[in-house]
Amino acid sequence: MKNSFNLFAAIAATATLPLAPTLAGNLTVNGNLTVETNATVEGQARIGGTAYLNTAFVNGNLDVKSNAFLEGDANVDFGLSVGGPADLYGDLRVMPWVVNAWHGTRSTVEVGALGKTNAIYGELGPDASNIVDGVAVEGYCTGPDTSGVFGELGHGDAEPGGEFPIRDYYGVYGHADASDGNAYAGYFDGRVNMNGVLSAQANVGIGTGSPGAQLDVEGSDDSGSWAAPIALIQNNDKGNAAAPALRLAGWGNTTYGVLSVSANGPGLIAQFGNYSKFVADIKNDGTIDAKAFNTTSDRNAKENFSPISPAEVLHRVVSLPISRWNFKQDDGVSHVGPMAQDFHAAFNVGSDDKHIATVDEEGVALAAIQGLNQKLNEKDAEIRDLKARLTRLEQLIETRNSSRN
Q1: 181 with 175: CB under 8 angstroms?
Q2: Residues 218-258: tens digit of each pLDDT
Q3: 43, 89, 133 from 40: Cα distances, Å
Q4: Which one of 185, 196, 237, 390 is least enclosed by Cβ atoms within 10 Å?
Q5: DSSP E strand boundaries for 313-373
């Protein structure tokens, strides 16, 4: 066989090209093709069986119906379509664009595989200096309606998109050594669009390469803008039955709460509002500012009712030490009130002796007012009795004085 062909080459059966031929036209092999050295095809190359290529240069499309084995380099100016597994030990360079059987003009390279194999497999190892620098599979998106790397699952001999039995399968699979902080199973520079479920078996970091939790979202923004948060979760449904934008649930002994919020600098811990304005906030010193706080007081929510003595409550309130003080972490703001220990010892209410519930403090105050009212009523009755006695005494004196005259 000569090194150069200026005519169309059609080979009906298996072919072996031991030299370095250059085909000016197209190459069609109905069986297998083995290229021991270099081969240049200026037109289209179609192999009906398996292609064993050392180095191939195809100015048109390279279409392999079965398997492809590449030991050297392959330059394909338009597209590569492989019906079976492709083992590539050299460099594969494919320039867009290609018309293939499955996706029209959507893919530059397409490799099909069946069973427990990989359609596209990339492995990157160290060089002679034990340095790993590069990517195993790299894809660039250069225009609309295109994909840098596209992985789709099919079944049997059907087109992609069919149903699979219940087992693990992946459209695109990447692996990296978890102990190497510079290794990435997948790297995306730009927007990522997902339509499905994201399943992560390890920590996921957004804005950090070393996530400290199952989901770690970090960022840095000193604009002070309400419209530039590090994370935004919102439900855009404006209907009457819109679901919560964020729902948290804990099923164990949540020592630190289902939601734990910390403000490590000055300012607010949280701020709450409606569409037009904020209506409540929590300061980092524990102060809550709001318009009103409605304590649950429905009779149907209560039980174990028992009467109290307003007079006894008043007596204990009178004996309760009241002083002026400030919190240690807020020495600029003074308050007046009792200590939780004294309040708990006097009335034995509340969850512990370190806190005073507003409902208990208000209840004690109301009971003390009733006790004071009872005492006032008693004093009023005593005053009325004294006035009546004084009136009778004055009448008796006036009668005696009249009789003497």
Answers
A1: no
A2: 988 887 788 888 889 999 999 999 999 999 999 988 888 99
A3: 9, 19, 31
A4: 196
A5: 323-325, 335-337
Alpha carbon 154 to its chain's center: 30
Distance CA 130, CA 124 (A): 12
Domains of the chain: 1-198 (no CATH), 305-404 (1.10.10)
DSSP for 141-159, written as a single string: --STT--SS------TTSP
Q: How far apart are CA 102 and CA 76, in angstroms?
A: 19
Residue 211 CB-density burial (10 A; 0-12 exposed, 13-18 middle, 19+ buried): middle
Q: Which residue has the tokens 């004084």?
A: 390
Residue 40, pLDDT score: 74
Residue with token string 């992985």: 151
Distance of alpha carbon 197 from alpha carbon 271, whole angstroms: 32
pLDDT in tens, 113-157: 555 556 666 666 677 777 767 777 777 666 666 666 766 655 444
pLDDT 10s digits, 142-154: 666 666 676 665 5
CB atoms within 10 A of CB 394: 10
